């Protein structure tokens, strides 16, 4: 696998979604100003107050930048937050260094504000968010709970098992905000061929044409969905596509020569295509949280690979491995295609963590995701809590504010149009 300099990545120009949003905010703002001027021209007393959008730098491309030292950046610890998953509780398991906690993300030419729990809780008042995907998605949800725990801790209102993984729903009564996670590592109906096999990477059967009802059945309860998937796709997969008349089978990473082989990237691409087309009729916003790079060095994940660095890469050292760039390309192209197909209804957004996290080889649990006496693989996939994954929720807050700004401007316009009809007209 060749290292690939992420700055040259051909998909950099794909950060187009925020720009689209920007121009619509601009258009709407201009319209609003014109309408207001039209009203004032008739010298009427100000008939209504224009709600001011929450302050957000909608022009900021938050996802391109670098990590800068931030000596005060420790927001919580393993003692102040009880939501940290055992395997990401690096402090508890004796990670000796803490410098990796003291960085924040600096977008080029603008700033990503520190995560402000009060502000987050006000932006999501009356709203609900679902994290849909694998354990790295849960990693982000637990980071969010920990970041908010500085202000308030949620009530666990429901807990069920989805295929032996916990699906939890949390509720924040003071802001009427609901947070859930749905375990669905392939986002589609999937089953392990031989669940009792001792191999940690057994074959999975994946139904490309069937998004997982574990999450599709609950969409209407949510305003925001955050989709993610990644490392499970590197397993051997048997992929089925059933129509009324035929079933076609393909596979990736499999040994069966009688079956059409497709690449991991194509399997990943088809999974997102199918996932995004399952959102017809959903009225909220669906974010794609992009591929989260792992950082095994000195070996592969199950054969000596480890991640022992203690500081981030600088922007110029940044490296996204070629295969990780292909995963990113596949999912972002599918997001763009889905957003272009969509007319009304669901809105799509990009939570683009890939470049930022490619620079954080120091943020993984490594050998500190388990008790010392347990010999297991080093975890260079998930992220320590607290840790750089906390910045994902800074990105999320930014995106939610951009969304809110659009909604506020839009409702101000419909108010203005309605009032102009009665007062100015
Ligand atoms: C937090 O980590 C420290 C070691 O840094 C450990 O002594 C303590 O027991 C941990 N607390 C919890 C609640 O696990
Ligand atoms: C909480 O939010 C939901 C969804 O927006 C809304 O239907 C409900 O009335 C709200 N409840 C309270 C107590 O504000
Ligand atoms: C499944 O097969 C149908 C018919 O050949 C095709 O139109 C569709 O794109 C395929 N879906 C996937 C996810 O491959
Ligand atoms: C592949 O197909 C051939 C001919 O149909 C058959 O003899 C062989 O057993 C098949 N191999 C596998 C691995 O299924
Ligand atoms: C590791 O040590 C803990 C605490 O002493 C003990 O409870 C646990 O069973 C041990 N695990 C193994 C795999 O030896």
Automatic annotation (TrEMBL):
<keyword id="KW-0472">Membrane</keyword>
<dbReference type="GO" id="GO:0000139">
    <property type="term" value="C:Golgi membrane"/>
</dbReference>
<dbReference type="InterPro" id="IPR026057">
    <property type="entry name" value="TBL_C"/>
</dbReference>
<keyword id="KW-0735">Signal-anchor</keyword>
<feature type="domain" description="Trichome birefringence-like N-terminal">
    <location>
        <begin position="59"/>
        <end position="111"/>
    </location>
</feature>
<dbReference type="Pfam" id="PF14416">
    <property type="entry name" value="PMR5N"/>
</dbReference>
<protein>
    <recommendedName>
        <fullName>Trichome birefringence-like N-terminal domain-containing protein</fullName>
    </recommendedName>
</protein>
<dbReference type="GO" id="GO:1990538">
    <property type="term" value="F:xylan O-acetyltransferase activity"/>
</dbReference>
<dbReference type="InterPro" id="IPR025846">
    <property type="entry name" value="TBL_N"/>
</dbReference>
<keyword id="KW-1133">Transmembrane helix</keyword>
<comment type="similarity">
    <text>Belongs to the PC-esterase family. TBL subfamily.</text>
</comment>
<keyword id="KW-0333">Golgi apparatus</keyword>
<keyword id="KW-0812">Transmembrane</keyword>
<dbReference type="InterPro" id="IPR029962">
    <property type="entry name" value="TBL"/>
</dbReference>
<dbReference type="Pfam" id="PF13839">
    <property type="entry name" value="PC-Esterase"/>
</dbReference>
<feature type="transmembrane region" description="Helical">
    <location>
        <begin position="25"/>
        <end position="44"/>
    </location>
</feature>
<feature type="domain" description="Trichome birefringence-like C-terminal">
    <location>
        <begin position="112"/>
        <end position="398"/>
    </location>
</feature>
């Amino acid at each position: 696998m060749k290292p690939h300099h992420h700055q040259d990545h051909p998909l950099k120009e794909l950060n187009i979604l925020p720009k689209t949003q920007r121009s619509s905010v601009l258009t709407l703002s201009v319209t609003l100003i014109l309408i207001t001027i039209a009203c004032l021209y008739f010298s009427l007393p100000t008939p209504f107050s224009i709600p001011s959008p929450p302050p957000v730098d909608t022009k900021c491309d938050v996802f391109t930048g670098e990590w800068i030292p931030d000596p005060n950046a420790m927001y919580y610890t393993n003692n102040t937050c009880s939501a940290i998953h055992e395997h990401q509780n690096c402090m508890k398991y004796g990670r000796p260094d803490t410098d990796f906690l003291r960085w924040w993300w600096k977008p080029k030419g603008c700033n990503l504000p520190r995560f402000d729990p009060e502000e987050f809780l006000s932006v999501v008042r009356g709203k609900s968010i679902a994290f849909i995907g694998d354990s790295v998605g849960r990693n982000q949800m637990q980071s969010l709970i920990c970041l908010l725990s500085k202000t308030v801790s949620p009530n666990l209102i429901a807990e069920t098992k989805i295929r032996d993984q916990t699906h939890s729903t949390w509720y924040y009564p003071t802001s009427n905000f609901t947070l859930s996670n749905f375990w669905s590592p392939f986002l589609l109906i999937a089953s392990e061929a031989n669940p009792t096999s001792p191999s940690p990477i057994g074959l999975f059967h994946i139904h490309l044409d069937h998004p997982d009802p574990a999450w599709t059945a609950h969409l209407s309860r949510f305003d925001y969905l955050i989709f993610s998937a990644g490392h499970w796709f590197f397993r051997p997969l048997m992929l089925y596509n059933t129509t009324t008349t035929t079933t076609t089978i393909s596979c990736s990473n499999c040994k069966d020569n009688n079956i059409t082989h497709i690449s991991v990237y194509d399997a990943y691409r088809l999974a997102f295509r199918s996932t995004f087309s399952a959102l017809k009729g959903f009225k909220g916003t669906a974010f794609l949280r992009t591929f989260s790079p792992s950082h095994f060095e000195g070996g592969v994940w199950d054969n000596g690979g480890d991640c022992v660095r203690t500081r981030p890469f600088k922007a110029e050292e940044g490296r996204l491995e070629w295969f990780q760039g292909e995963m990113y390309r596949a999912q972002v192209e599918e997001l763009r295609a889905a957003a272009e197909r969509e007319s009304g209804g669901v809105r799509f957004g990009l939570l683009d963590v890939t470049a930022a996290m490619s620079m954080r080889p120091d943020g993984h649990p490594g050998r500190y995701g388990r008790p010392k006496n347990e010999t297991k693989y080093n975890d260079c996939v998930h992220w320590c809590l607290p840790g750089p994954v906390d910045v994902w929720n800074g990105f999320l807050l930014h995106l939610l504010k951009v969304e809110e700004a659009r909604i506020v401007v839009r409702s101000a316009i419909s108010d203005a149009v309605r009032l102009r009809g009665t007062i100015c007209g």
